[in-house]
Amino acid sequence: MTKLHILAFLLIFWGYPYGTFAQKDSLQGCFFSIKNYNPKPLPNFNEARNWLPFPIYDENPLWVETYWKAWEMAFKNFQEPAEGSGFVSQFLDPAFNANIFLWDGAFITMFLNVAHPLVPGISSLDNFYVKQHSTGEICREINRSTGIDFEFWRNTENQPLFSRWGFDEYFNQYRSDVVYKGREVPSPNPELTLDAINHPILAWAELESYKWTGDKDRLALVRIPLIKYYEALKKYIRQGNGLYITDWASMDNSPRNICLARGGTGIDISSEMVLFARNLSELSGILGYKEDEEKFNNEADNLVALINSKMWDNEKKFYFDLTIDEEFCHHKTIAAFWTLISRTATSERAKILAEQLKNPNTFGRLHPVPTLAADEKEYFPNGGYWSGGVWVMTNTMVIKGLESYGYNELAESIALKHLDATSQVFKETGTFWENYAADTIEEGINTNGAAVVKDIVGWGALAPVLYFIEYGIGLKPNAPQNELVWKLSSEKKIGCKRFRFNNHIVDLYAQPDGKRIRIKVRSDDSFKLTLIKDGKVKSYEILKGKTKIRMDD
């Protein structure tokens, strides 16, 4: 590795702004109505602990301990916008380097939903909307202090789309131009490089928040920015075959990256664009924009047809990336599972993917789900970053995708295995890690033997907070329907005090008593409670005040 390569690596790791002059696009944030930050005190853990949801889980006290440690660390990373940055919301710093990241920030909101509105959560994404370019583009990485897009991802050359650091590991290759095959080069040139444009999951994060809050005003606030973002991606990264282009930045050191050179198409980004369109369709329906609802749904269906006709290998029974010449890139990676959450896979293919997640020779490892199948020659059993590491973000995508096809038991199994592994590593090391090994219950290491980043809270709290609440205790809100679903699976005392959803605060307790379960509920308002136990489902209307329920076997 040359000194130049080493410098480039350090710059991306530490988020060096590489120039503090203003960005050339003076119309940033023009689609977003919030323009200024209204200062307020940052939340304090010692004060908020008495208001945060309080889990009760006698079966595994370690999970409870891990939950509270995750919150304690998270509160240390809450930030106010730096003076002059132009950011408009407090946020939870990803705790990775000097920048905020769209991918990280979107997933971070998913566990912060549990404590809405006590902590900065979904509103932290406002810092990306307010930095949206007039072209609709949003940079995935923005300097935390200056509010300026990470310098290397800015198209300061005003050239057609290119990847600054290419299609191999980011420290091994230089700039590579994108070749559009079968379509015109977009005009005007983009504000950003291809490295800046990956994982467009903001709309997904917004709808996950909506499940907890039922806040239509929030969806109305972000509708136009999201539509403009979607249109920009269609304009700049759609290949002539109708699929979507990505580079190393989607999965840093994945062996699949070289196949994407010059303008190959990724199964992840293509499926994410299906997800984006489906999200926009759902959001439009919620807000009463029926024409947009139909339009985005049709666009999703058309892209699904392309993906299924071009990216599924009938011989190998898996979804693969394509080279620019539409040849399969035969690396089985976590990217294929984006076809589940986007509802791209046919039911038959979804079943095959679910079997792969249980297959110990590929993705069903001791700690699922590795980012690269274990039977690939580049697989790194102790982590290897995107060559075998287990990331809570991609696991969240897999889990939610499985649920969309009805594979709820497998989804729960993966969630609880990840929660337990995270808790065990926390017990041994006292912290949370960037990613984890798949073949041992340990933090991940890189392919060069170096440890991954620790104290990641940030996204590291997804498992100890969100997975614990949704899959350990079993509580899942549906705020738009004013419903709370509680799957009871523990044989010991279980519940949650101060559970928050749809502006309600609810205390729930369940105590097994022989062949029945005694349940107590105290709520500040009415809602529908749906209980699931051993396959039995029963719903109750909960009124303000105290309610007692007996659920018999």
Largest sheet: 5 strands, antiparallel
Neighbour order of strands in the largest sheet: 1-14-15-16-19
| C-alpha termini separation | 64 Å
Poorly predicted regions are 1-21
Mean pLDDT: 94
Percent of residues in helices = 25-40%
What gyration radius follows from the Cα positions, in whole Å?
A: 23 Å
Q: Helix tally?
A: 14
Structural class: alpha+beta
* 3D shape: globular
> In total, how many beta strands?
19
The portion of residues forming beta strands comes to 15-25%
Write a compact overview of the structure shown.
The chain has 553 residues and is an alpha+beta fold.
Account of the 3D structure:
It is a single chain. This protein has helices at 3-14, 45-48, 61-76, 102-112, 126-129, 202-213, 216-237, 267-287, 290-310, 338-341, 347-358, 392-404, 408-429, 462-473, and strands at residues 54-57, 78-79, 91-92, 99-101, 141-143, 162-163, 176-177, 312-313, 318-319, 321-322, 328-329, 475-478, 483-487, 494-501, 504-513, 516-523, 527-533, 536-542, 545-552. The chain is an alpha+beta fold and 553 residues long. Among the domains are: 349-473, no CATH class; 483-552, no CATH class. A 5-stranded antiparallel sheet has the order 1-14-15-16-19. A 4-stranded mixed sheet has the order 12-13-17-18. The chain has a two-stranded antiparallel sheet with strand order 2-3. It is globular, with a radius of gyration of 23 Å. Residues 1-21 have low confidence and may be disordered.
